[in-house]
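Contributing new complexes? Match this layout with magnesium ion.
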Amino acid sequence: MKKRYPTHVSLLLRLVKGSKHFFILSILFAWLTSLLDLINPRIVSFAVDSVLGTASPQLPGPVLSLINRIGGPDMLRSHIGYIAGLVIVIAILAALTRYTFRMMTAKGQEVMLKSTRDLLYRHIISLPLSWHNKNHTGDIIQRCTSDVDVIRAFLSEQLINLVRMTVQIVLAIIFMLGISPYLTLIELAFIPIIVLFSLFFHVRIGASFRKVDEMEGQLSAVAQENLTGVRVVRAFGREQYERERFEKKNEAYTGLWDYLMRLLSLFWATGDALSGLQTLFILIAGAHFCLNGSITVGGYIAFLSYSAMIAGPVRQLGRVISGMSRAGVSIERLQYILNSDPETEIEEAAAAPLEGDIVFDHVTFRYGPDDAPVLNDVSLTCKAGKVTGILGSTGSGKSTLMYLLCRLYDLPENGGEIRIGNQRLSTITRESVRSQIGIVLQEPYLFSRTLGENIAIAGLTATDHDIREAAKIAVLDDTVNHFSKGYDTFVGERGVTLSGGQKQRTAIAQTILRNTPIMILDDSLSAVDTETDTRIRREMDQMDTSATRILIAHRITTLMHADHIIVMDQGRVVEEGTHQELLEHNGLYRKICDLQMPETGREP
Ligand SMILES: Nc1ncnc2c1ncn2[C@@H]1O[C@H](COP(=O)(O)OP(=O)(O)O)[C@@H](O)[C@H]1O
Ligand SMILES: [Mg+2]
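Output block (do not edit by hand):
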């Protein structure tokens, strides 16, 4: 598939789609500000020369003719207040344009940040599960926060500053040339030296910043993992070990900052010395020119102002240029996300009701191209409206089979076919499939909301009564009534305040509430006791539904009453039949049954 954002520029253009005009305005106002800033020293220099009266003021022709028209320098000399007023007016104008420039930059970056976050989030949730499996959550979040911020800084600080400073420096040089070409030559001789010097340092500083970033990532990864797994750390008495691991990282992190700070200090100190040297040269040469009359005192003062005005920008130019490489890395990290292909549907895919038998027809599936097949030529049928039990040891591929049924993963070509009532599953849209299948996952995930909100997570319109009814069938109601806040009990992050069995029953209640045409319980009764297990199944049998049900378990008692039982081992179907038939068959099922309930097994 064609890449959406093949180049850095194409991605940047997409990111500034709604904010471009703010950035363009901000650059225009920045230029205007530079121009206004540059005018004032010339006015001051004119004032000095006029008052001293030692030399005719050095001004461009059109400005001089304007002054002559309003009465000449003599008039201005007697009304020096006008000049002061002009200086103030220009300063106020410059303040206004500077304010607009900052506002436009701020506005541009906010709009850009918002649209970038939206774009990323929308894309990330559309990416297939296989993508999420191989990318770490922490890393994805880092890309959506730090990297987005680096790009923001690049656009609203570096890029704009580069354009702004270059123009400011060029304008200042033009103004300087108007005063004295020789002094300008001295100024110019220093500029490349200072820029190169600053670039040299900033390449090192940038590399060092990158190391600091990396170490910060590692440090927060250690902290995050330990905080998430705080129970394991405590239970295994690993506090000491984990603390040392953290402290070691923390020390390395501090060390890197230390080095970085020394580098920065060295840069600023040497930079100051270089600029000082430049000023010294200009001071001496300027004084010399002043004495021999080739420039006026006012011109000399103005020149020094310009030189001081661009000293900062010249030094920052190196920093801006080196900072750009950092933005390049971040752009690539976003490209990685945005160029990943989202889940797509084939052309003829459409929504359709899931009715009829579920048929797995010679299904072969592997997770990665280099992995061994997890399902190997699996063929089985789950009869419509009946309960199908699937028994198998862990890793035999039961969950994978259900993920394929929910279209969480797609079958490859030559990987067989899944049909529901003679319709190929791949021709029914994912949205339609998933909305009609209720699956209780093996490891239920609860959100940090209330218990009631968790049960109603899929059925947005559920009333308290509906939630209660679903909880009753899942044999959760009695338990909840013991909680002081009932269904308003907050379940904590990932449901930490609930026991394994309570979490499972909450997840079952979610699925019961949805009341979909297909219901799957994937090992969902493993953490409840046998008695509750029986009660839940009995309640579900009495539900007013014709749903096709699939019950996965490794406890025989959970699925012995199913209409049809399939026994899986190592990605293959090894036996199938009813409980009775399987016992008579005397195979794997019988063996497991003998182990789990010896008394039943012996007397079928
Ligand atoms: N996301 C995944 N990526 C790679 N391998 C996986 C993934 N999920 C499961 N597997 C592998 O597939 C096999 C079957 O897993 P699963 O379907 O969960 O089995 P069961 O549900 O029967 O215990 C296991 O060997 C497991 O290691
Ligand atoms: Mg499983």
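Reviewers usually confirm one structural detail per submission. For this one: The pocket of magnesium ion (ligand 2) is lined by residues 398-399, 442, 522-523 (CB under 6 Å).
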